[in-house]
Task: inverse folding
């Protein structure tokens, strides 16, 4: 049994926040942000919560796949910013869509979340338990950004991306292989304690927290770990990077992507980018970019794609797909 992506969708909020807008809030400049990150603007959600953004992206993915909500039997949402502790974002999306025959759950792997969700769904489909699944990457990071911290607030944006996958026979195109990894010892490099609980004994009230990041540590981790992971995956599958049409990377920083391209000895032509428009949308960035490429008609039957992410955990992962 194999797993094939049969449709994609995405959603970004209307509200555009440019670098110049941010320069009014903190001491920064359009020039600094563009040259260090490649970001020109990001979208910020004013009225849509995580589940609503996820549901909009999902509706578009279902339409693209010609699949009805009641035909989905599994929904996995990758998010670090669900609207609430429970229910899960996936269950909320299930309710909004009317996907009455599905079971829903979330996975938490920050910016690697979509890769983790795709790998999980692939494994579950291969057991024969499920046939048609909806996979969502969604984040509403603007709600956990400290807008007075210039070292983080310039990086992130809100959005959602989704893909519908279906079981196919092993000869059909689909997911060829994947690798995911984590290193919990490096958890402090990138964290957000927004779910800090109150304490009954001390009377301490729950406190909101914000994203805290050692930017250069994340940078060094990403440019080392992602190429290693991609190379290990390709070697295990016996496929060379020259056979791959696109390396669809998590959109965290243009310079990170350039460095990964150099280490993998591939041209930036193979690494599509949309960070300029959306910033780092965390779990949403890979499916958002995948959907853009799909809708622009850039993905042809038989194309080999590598999807790769990295993020808090620390986590990383890559999936090789034949379109
Ligand atoms: N505007 C102007 N100056 C700034 C800004 C800003 N927005 N932010 C930091 N600076 C200053 C710093 O204070 C520092 O000043 P100093 O030299 O006087 O101390 C100077 O710029 C250089 O700071 P660095 O942190 O060394 O800048 P760097 O070139 O490393 O760029 C950046 C910072 C863009 C954050 C980079 O390290 C990076 O992209 N790291 C990876 C981050 C990332 O990808 N995070 C997301 C991971 S995915 C996830 O799971 C959410």
Result:
């Amino acid at each position: 049994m194999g797993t094939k992506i049969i449709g994609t969708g995405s959603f970004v909020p209307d509200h555009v926040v440019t670098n110049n807008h941010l320069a009014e809030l903190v001491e920064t400049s359009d020039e600094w942000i563009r040259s260090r990150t490649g970001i020109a603007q990001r979208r910020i959600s004013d009225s849509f919560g995580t589940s609503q953004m996820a549901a909009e992206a999902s509706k578009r993915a279902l339409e693209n796949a010609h699949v009805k909500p009641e035909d989905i039997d599994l929904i996995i949402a990758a998010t670090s910013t669900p609207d609430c502790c429970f229910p899960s974002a996936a269950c909320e999306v299930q309710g909004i869509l009317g996907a009455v025959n599905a079971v829903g759950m979330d996975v938490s792997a920050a910016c690697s979340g979509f890769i983790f969700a795709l790998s999980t769904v692939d494994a579950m489909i291969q057991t024969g338990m499920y046939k048609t699944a909806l996979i969502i990457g969604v984040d509403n990071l603007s709600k956990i950004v400290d807008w007075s911290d210039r070292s983080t607030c310039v990086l992130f944006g809100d959005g959602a991306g989704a893909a519908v996958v279906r079981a196919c026979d092993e000869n059909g195109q689909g997911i060829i292989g994947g690798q995911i990894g984590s290193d919990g010892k490096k958890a402090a490099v990138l964290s957000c304690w927004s779910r800090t609980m109150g304490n009954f004994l001390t009377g301490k009230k729950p406190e909101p927290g914000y994203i805290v990041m050692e930017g250069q540590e994340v940078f060094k981790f990403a440019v080392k770990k992602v190429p290693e992971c991609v190379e290990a995956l390709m070697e295990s599958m016996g496929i060379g990077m020259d056979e791959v049409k696109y390396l669809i990377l998590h959109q965290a920083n243009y310079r990170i992507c350039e460095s990964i391209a150099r280490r993998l000895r591939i041209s930036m032509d193979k690494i599509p980018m949309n960070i300029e428009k959306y910033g780092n949308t965390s779990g949403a960035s890979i499916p958002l970019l995948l959907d853009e490429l799909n809708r622009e008609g850039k993905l042809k039957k038989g194309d080999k794609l590598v999807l790769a992410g990295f993020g808090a955990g620390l986590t990383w992962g890559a999936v090789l797909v034949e379109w």
